[in-house]
Specification:
This protein is mostly helical. It is about 80% helix and about 0% strand. α2 runs parallel beside α11, α4 packs antiparallel against α5 and α8 packs across α11. Bound molecules: 5-(aminomethyl)-2-methylpyrimidin-4-amine.
Length: about 220
């Protein structure tokens, strides 16, 4: 079994909870309340900032140019179309400049930022790709698990789905999983336990990140 599959199976309850979350179901059905979407987007924009920093660190630590390039290309999507998506959504949903730039961080957002920073500062490529893999694989999985409707969705729902499905995004997740598989295989026992810990913490935080939009 691939190490990435084994890591996923080792926290399957948390994985199921994150990838079948009611937030994702409501988003794809178009029934998600706009207040929840506003909260989510403002929190997630601060997540993206730290994700970019962690991805940059992983690019630096990747073993070869061939390992580095797919993540570098993916960062271009985040810096380009994904960033524009946030700006257009903030405008359309009337999210204030203050909420866009300095929202009060909810606990899972702060927890995720701390985990990403810790992974980057650990200097271990394996720890970094464990967190990055979870972040993108959980999103690919929820787009695959959710139901769809025939009528068109507002762009701030539809484009969020589009950014996390399809052939290109599947190739990003496959690249990250392959990087994680190799780094895990090369790790010793203690390092493997640390990688598994990062993986599980990230999955748990993904679920809590969605939960937090309902707690306000
Ligand atoms: C919290 C979180 N996790 C993952 C993703 C996927 N890009 C995201 N935007 N936000």
């Amino acid at each position: 079994m691939r190490p990435s599959e084994m890591l996923k199976d080792s926290c399957s309850l948390e994985w199921q909870a994150a990838t079948n979350h009611v937030f994702c179901q409501e988003l794809t059905l178009g029934s998600l309340s706009l207040d929840k979407m506003r909260i989510y987007l403002a929190q997630d924009y601060t997540f993206i900032d730290n994700f970019v920093r962690l991805a940059a660190s992983a690019i630096h630590h990747a073993p070869t140019l061939a390992d580095r390039l797919p993540l570098a290309a993916f960062l271009g999507i985040i810096a380009g179309p994904e960033n524009t998506y946030f700006q257009r959504s903030f405008d359309s949903l009337n999210v204030s400049k203050e909420e866009q730039e300095t929202p009060s961080l909810l606990a899972p957002t702060a927890g995720f930022q701390a985990l990403m920073l810790k992974a980057a500062q650990s200097g271990s490529y394996a720890n970094m790709v464990a967190v990055l893999t979870v972040a993108e694989w959980v999103y690919l999985s929820w787009t695959q698990n959710t139901d769809r409707i025939d009528s068109p969705l507002p762009f701030y729902f539809q484009e969020w789905i589009n950014l996390h499905e399809g052939e290109y995004f599947e190739s990003v997740v496959e690249h990250l999983r392959t990087q994680l598989d190799r780094a895990y295989d090369a790790a010793d026992g203690a390092e493997k336990a640390t990688i598994a810990d990062y993986f599980k913490q990230a999955v748990t935080l993904e679920k809590q990140f969605f939960d937090a939009c309902y707690d306000i």
